[in-house]
């Protein structure tokens, strides 16, 4: 066994040991399983690649530098410090075939949770043979992999899952963002900057409490860190460009914190007084700017000189710099006429773009460039494609490792999952259709072909699934009907029954535990309120109104013990888009608010636990976790998955990522990660939508066109 494998297996053993303990505990105590949706994420087959900045870009010149496992992104080329090297086994550096290995630090989502890894890669030398193969993978003897930080890091003593992002290294210290500390305020991001001493694991928070900092970058000397931050102001729900400002503080301890730029994000340093960043310009184009900080301290915002760097007619963003390189920067761009995000250089002397990745892989997104310290290489993340025959199978259920022994968490490749009463089947939506599948991923088949959303199983009549047939997010007057589907019917032409027929917006059906009635929301009076109807005959068998008011009550579910119906409502501020969760008895009494969103916030999709004592729901309680522009479709209007007890206690955040998590389901029985093995399909297309708002281009005159 070589060194790389030894390290890998040591890590694996630790993980497996933790997992085995968890398994036993869960079996003993029962344990809960929650399944949820993440928009786009199952298709993000990201690896990190690198191109030379001095040679014309070519397919053969593109090097894949991560290992094709999981989703890898937001890389950083460190100057290898003694502290970093000390993490490697002694023999590692003696490798005859290549004297100059590549050092890479990056974010990886192995085991479903984000970690920061350090890879030492041999064979990165430009003259090596393997570079002649397209996107070649470096086989295991050529790579040493060291996990630096994970969601459950034993060295830092952190015991909760968290999102880790945007690493940089300065000497002994890794600087990064993490979401492991609750901001304590609804709708306030948990993202903050930390530094961890590599040798000791000692971790220090650099962001003041109550403040969220994104996208940290450390100056070449290591003395200063720049971040995008709201300061005390906080996130107000924006999901496109954030209205952050740029702050600078001492990397050592977070002191000397000064706002240096009003309106800007994704800072990076060229020298101790020159920063680049992105912002949306007044003419509508997203552009890169330069801020020159005065040499004389104390630093004040008035003494900072700001110049636009990239011209209109191209969106240019997420800039990357290298120390003392005043000749060029790297950027990601969206050009009118192209549907893809590409990495380009921008020549600061000639003021022109130099295209890179479009010439290599035109029909693929390339994101978040970063430059090597000597400027010779630009890295970025992009789809791995089927390099060397390696494709990640698309799992129906991807396990998200958790630290809690009583919970297993899965991301489903579909939306609106729900479990059959015995827990042996899942119904879910895959536009346009309703599907049924076993939890291990086998037996998948379509049971309804057409636009539909939400699923719920009848608790009494076998194989009956309820859904809403029609478009989502539609007005009260749009035709959406409650349907029941007999998923075991031999004759599919008669398996679907329409329970409402009034041509209004009827949706989110959920049956009572005795299977006699259904609660749903309907726009039949011009407002979306809650109703009950007969589960078999539909509204013709009896219709009762449960809530009434000029507001929206929606996303209802019935507790398994029959006592409560939970729903989301904007009744406290109708039409504002702000939703809180409420409970009501099925007889219309006992209405109470279960959870208050932050101002303007959204809390949605409540579903009860099998014991009826808790709910799982989606909420923007934890704000957003990264600059939305830094990943595709990367905004979080619905936020993360949370659970809480019906008495309002024990609020727990289950998901930590910068994606859009939604539509949770609480399984009636525990599903162990090992029970879910089968890939859903062989196909891994890596097709997803980039931030849709990047498709909007202003005209050159500065007038915005909305497409
Ligand atoms: C974690 O992920 C790795 C790589 O994807 C996988 O090989 C390993 O089995 C996973 N570990 C556990 C405990 O699930
Ligand atoms: C960084 O800080 C150290 C310690 O305060 C100081 O000696 C050094 O000159 C600083 N370097 C730069 C480039 O400002
Ligand atoms: C309504 O239902 C609740 C819960 O089942 C019950 O406690 C209450 O007595 C009922 N009220 C009426 C007026 O029936
Ligand atoms: C996966 O691909 C192989 C070979 O192309 C094929 O034999 C197999 O049936 C496929 N499996 C699925 C689940 O599509």
Automatic annotation (TrEMBL):
InterPro entries membership: 6-blade_b-propeller_TolB-like (IPR011042), WD40 (IPR011659)
The keyword Lipoprotein is annotated on this UniProt entry: no
Pfam families registered for this protein in UniProt: PD40 (PF07676)
Keywords for this protein: Signal
Source organism superkingdom: Eukaryota
Signal peptide annotation: 1-20
Protein name listed in UniProt: DPP6 N-terminal domain-like protein
């Amino acid at each position: 066994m070589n060194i790389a494998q030894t390290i890998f297996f040591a890590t694996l053993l630790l993980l497996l040991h933790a997992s085995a303990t968890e398994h036993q505990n869960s079996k003993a105590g029962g344990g809960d399983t929650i399944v949820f949706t993440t928009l786009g994420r199952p298709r993000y087959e990201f690896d990190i690649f690198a191109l030379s900045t001095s040679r014309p870009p070519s397919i053969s010149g593109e090097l894949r530098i991560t290992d094709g496992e999981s989703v890898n992104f937001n890389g950083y080329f460190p100057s290898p410090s003694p502290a970093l090297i000390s993490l490697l086994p002694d023999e590692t550096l003696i490798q005859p075939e290549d004297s100059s290995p590549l050092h890479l630090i990056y974010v990886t989502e192995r085991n479903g949770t984000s970690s920061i890894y350090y890879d030492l890669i041999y064979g990165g030398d430009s003259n090596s043979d393997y570079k002649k193969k397209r996107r070649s993978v470096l086989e295991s003897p050529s790579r040493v992999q060291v996990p630096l930080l994970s969601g459950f890091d034993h060295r830092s003593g952190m015991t909760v899952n968290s999102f880790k992002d945007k690493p940089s290294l300065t000497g002994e210290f890794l600087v990064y963002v993490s979401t492991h500390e609750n901001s304590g305020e609804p709708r306030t991001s948990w993202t903050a900057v930390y530094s961890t001493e590599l040798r000791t694991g000692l971790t220090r928070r650099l962001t003041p409490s109550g403040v969220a900092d994104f996208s940290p970058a450390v100056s070449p000397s290591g003395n200063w860190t720049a971040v995008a931050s709201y300061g005390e102001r906080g996130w107000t729900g924006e999901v496109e460009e954030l209205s952050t400002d740029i702050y600078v503080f001492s990397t050592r301890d977070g002191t000397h914190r000064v706002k240096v730029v009003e309106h800007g994000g994704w800072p990076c340093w060229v020298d101790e007084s020159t920063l680049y960043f992105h912002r949306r310009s007044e003419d509508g184009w997203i552009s890169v700017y330069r801020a020159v900080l005065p040499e004389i301290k104390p630093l004040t915002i008035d003494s900072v000189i700001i110049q636009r760097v990239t011209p209109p007619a191209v969106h240019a963003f997420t800039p990357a710099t290298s120390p003392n390189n005043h000749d060029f920067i790297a950027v990601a761009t969206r050009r009118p006429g192209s549907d893809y995000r590409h990495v380009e250089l921008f020549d600061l002397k000639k003021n022109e773009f130099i295209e890179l990745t479009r010439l290599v892989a035109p029909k693929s997104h390339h994101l978040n460039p970063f430059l090597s310290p000597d400027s010779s290489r630009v890295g970025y993340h992009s789809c791995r494609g089927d390099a060397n025959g390696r494709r990640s199978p698309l799992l129906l259920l991807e396990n998200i490792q958790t630290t809690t022994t009583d919970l297993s968490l899965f991301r489903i490749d579909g939306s609106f999952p729900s479990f059959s009463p015995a827990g042996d089947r899942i119904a879910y939506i895959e536009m346009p259709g309703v599907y049924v599948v076993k939890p291990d991923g086998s037996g998948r088949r379509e049971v309804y072909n057409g636009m539909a959303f939400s699923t719920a199983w009848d608790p009494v009549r076998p194989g009956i699934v309820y859904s809403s047939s029609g478009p989502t997010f539609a007005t009260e007057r749009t035709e959406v009907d409650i349907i029941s589907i007999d998923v075991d019917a031999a004759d599919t032409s008669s398996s679907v029954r329409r329970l409402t027929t009034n041509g209004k917006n009827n949706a989110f059906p959920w049956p009572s535990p005795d299977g006699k009635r259904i609660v749903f929301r309907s726009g039949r009076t011009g407002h979306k309120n809650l109703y009950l109807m007969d589960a078999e005959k539909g509204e013709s068998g009896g219709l009762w109104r449960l809530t009434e008011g000029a507001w929206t009550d929606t996303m209802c579910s019935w507790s398994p013990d029959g006592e409560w119906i939970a729903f989301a409502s904007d009744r406290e501020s109708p039409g504002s888009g702000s939703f809180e969760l409420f409970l009501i008895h099925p007889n219309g009494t006992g209405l109470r608010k279960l959870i208050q969103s932050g101002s303007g916030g959204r809390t949605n999709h409540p579903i009860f636990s099998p014991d009826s004592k808790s709910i799982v729901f989606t909420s923007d309680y934890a704000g957003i976790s990264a600059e939305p522009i830094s990943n595709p479709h990367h905004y979080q209007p619905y936020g993360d998955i949370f659970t809480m007890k019906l008495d309002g206690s024990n609020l727990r955040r289950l998901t930590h990522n910068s994606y859009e998590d939604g539509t949770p389901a609480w399984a009636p029985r525990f599903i162990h990660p090992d029970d879910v093995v089968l890939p859903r399909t062989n196909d891994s297309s890596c097709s997803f939508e980039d931030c849709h708002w990047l498709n909007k281009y202003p005209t050159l005159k500065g007038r915005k066109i909305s497409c």
